[in-house]
Structure formats: structure tokens, C-alpha cells
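Morning!

This is the sequence you dropped in the shared folder:
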Amino acid sequence: MKASSALVPAVLVMLLTAAMGLEDQRTEGPSGSPKASGESQGAVTVANFSSEKNVAAGDEFRKWMQEHGWEAMLGDPAYFFISDSALDMVAKSGPVFRKRAWYAVFNRDKLRHGIENQVLLNITPADFGLDLDRYPTIAFQMEPVALPGKGADMRDPKRNDTCFCLMVSFDSQWHEYKGARFQESVGYVWADQKWDQPVGTDPDYAAFLRYIPIGYGEKGLNESHEVRRDVKRDWQLAFPEYGDKPVPKVIRVGLMIDSNSVDSVSHSRLNWVRFEQEKRHGPAPSLRQPSR
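The structure's back. C-alpha cells below.
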């Protein structure tokens, strides 16, 4: 890895701290439900694009994010857009990435906030707190469009790119890493190749970030996939060191996509994300009212 690109994982460390390690005060509704969330029909919707109008990439999408309370914790979603009832997440080289060596020396803040092919979004409110005893299942509909390729592998620090990662963070133990503090998270990823284990880790972040693949490779590209996962079970699978201790609450949900390590293009689509209480039919209530 070139010295200029080797600085980018350090940026990820700093930004993940902000995204998943803020010791904010979370208020809850009755019985530990997320504040201001609907509870009818047994689900809590985090994001749903079925009724969203098309939103162009660039400033128009950044404005949409601001109106909906989303926050870019790492990078710039410069090529994200909304079309045909789905969020298109695109990570590819842009002006900041192409000048990353210069920014790494003279403007690190611009590098970490402006890089176009390593993006992490927080899509839940600051006071979000969800009790998995009430909503144990995370469900989402996604479509992988373009893999980063070039040997990308989330388990390899030098090639850790993916076209899709839905990250769930827990109110659990803090971890110190290179002067930063992190909370433990499970990332649901579409992997470039099949893994021989149900859980993968990048050695740099293994103490606090574990990956669970929801699909592999080119089979299934450009097809819609509806995924349901038992988050409590996945927590126990990803963090077996906790044994039979109670599963902590979910405090944050994020979206991540990157292609910076292998310098390519990755692309996926997301239709909706929700936590479910039980099998249900029809649309789930939104976490927040859309801003128009």
C-alpha cells in the first residue's frame, strides 16, 4: 500500500469514533422503545424510500440528508442519489481522493470529510435506543450492483472494500484503539468472495467491529434481496466472549460503502430498513416524519 493511501484507514478510525462512540444521552419511550418511533404493526422503520421522489447526486442529495437528519461521519456521499424508490450508494474516485496525498499532508480534515470512495453515514437520531427483546429482527431490502473487485476483502486491511455494509452498533463495552474509543458493532456486508467462516474481521478493528456476510460475489448482482437477521443471535455469534449475558440495546444504524483501498467503483441499492417484532404485512411506521 502506498504511503498516501495508508493514511486513509487512520481516518476511518477517527470517524468511526464519532459515528459509533459518542457518549450521548439517549431518551426512550415506553418500555425501551426508540423515542418518537411508531410501534404499530410490530416494527420500527429506520429508512424507507418507497415514497421518496428522485433525488440527484451532489448538493441535492446532501440537502435531502440534512432534511432527514442523516449525517456523513466519514467521507462525502458525492455520488449517492435516490431513484425508483431506492437509495443508490456509489463509491468511486473523485477530486479529493485523487489528491489524497496532498490532503493527507496539508488538509486532513478535508480528506476525512471529502473523500468520495469511503463513506459512512449515520441514519438514526442521536437519541436512538432499541431494545432487542422487543424488536429482535432487522430486515432490509438491498441490491448489489457493482463489486469493488480487484481482490477486495473486508478481512484484509489492505483491500477492505465492500459494495454494501449495514452497520448496527450496540450500547456495550468501549474499546481503545490508537487513542480513539469505539463501541462494538456488527456489519452486514455483501462480500466479494465466499468466506469459510460465518463471521469475518479486519485485524485492525477486530476487537469492536465484526462482519457477517449476507451474500457473496457476482451471483445475485442486480437482483433484489430481502434479508432478515436475528440481531440477538448475530450479536452472540459475532461476540461470543459475552456468553449468556443480556444482549445490549442497539444505539445506532449506519450505512457504509467503499472502494478506496483497491481504487475501483462499488455500487449498491437500498430500499428500506426496519426492526421487526414479528412477521407482519404492510408498510411499517417511520422513525421520523419525512421533511419536504
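Headline: Helices lie at 3-20, 59-67, 95-98, 100-106, 108-114, 231-238.

More detail when I'm at my desk.
O.
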